[in-house]
Predict the structure.
Amino acid sequence: MKAHYTLMIGLALVTATGCEGGAMVTESRGQRPDLVITMLHQGVIELNGNIEELQRHIADLKQMPIDTDPQVQELQGLDLASWELHLQQWMVQRDNLVSSLDAIEQAQATPQDKTTIGNQWSERRAHYMKTIEELRSNRRKMEQKRTDVESQVLERYFK
Amino acid sequence: MTVRTVTLAIGLLGIWVVAGCANVQVLRLTSETFPAREVEDVTILSRFPSQQHERIAELSETSSSDNIERLQRHLLKKAAELGADAVVFSTPITHIEQRVAYQQAYNPWGYYSPYYGPGPYGYWGPWGYRYGPWGPTWGYQQTVAVPYSVRVTTVKGTAIHYS
């Protein structure tokens, strides 16, 4: 009886501490990572993962057999084009984050050039906003086009 | 020790394993050791810094969890134990794995039919109502293979220490 109580308590402790591990002597160097820079790095890592996955998905879509129906073909083409546009958008976003990280690093390394670096960054930022807006506009047009073609395909079932 | 105790013990261990315990693989790149530090002090990086640094270890974890941030936290925790200043994360790799689960098949006779209840001979009786090859269930498959997909994610990073 006593043995199994000991076992139960032991297991409960193991479960409670679980993955947290035991106490460890740690030292804090007092300098916490910059949250904004961490956010930029985190964004780059996530976007890189998304981009790779989407590239694989697009490659798979390109291997799919093409339907003989011209309207279904058009739908398939629109889907592929939409994914490619999405990929482009992610790449632009990723490049913008990388460019911002570069600018921050440069500004930290050469504080005397902060103003020049800041101006260059602002120009790139304006260009980025314009590109993103163009991509959004293309996306809206593509979505509209897809809805129209899809309606035509579905309407055939009711005629 | 009773059967109940052993079952409970196994159950607790099962929960502990399934609860998403960190299973970070560590490949040490240096014999030099550094004092452990707080995990909040370890910086997340997407590329190697220009600052002079030493590579301490390659860290990786693979999980069917889709939560990349959780896997990153596991790596950061391990890096903190190794005394790293930062972890340079590489692109997370996600792929789909096809797996098969075996589930109880639909029983055409229903659970309450006289052939499938515990009956006078019980499940483990000599006649093997449920599992025996010659019982009333002969010819019916008891389990079916159900294929399913799992997204498996691998997060890798290099723990570094500034020189």
Q: What stands out?
A: Residues 89 and 135 of chain A are 7 Å apart (CA to CA).
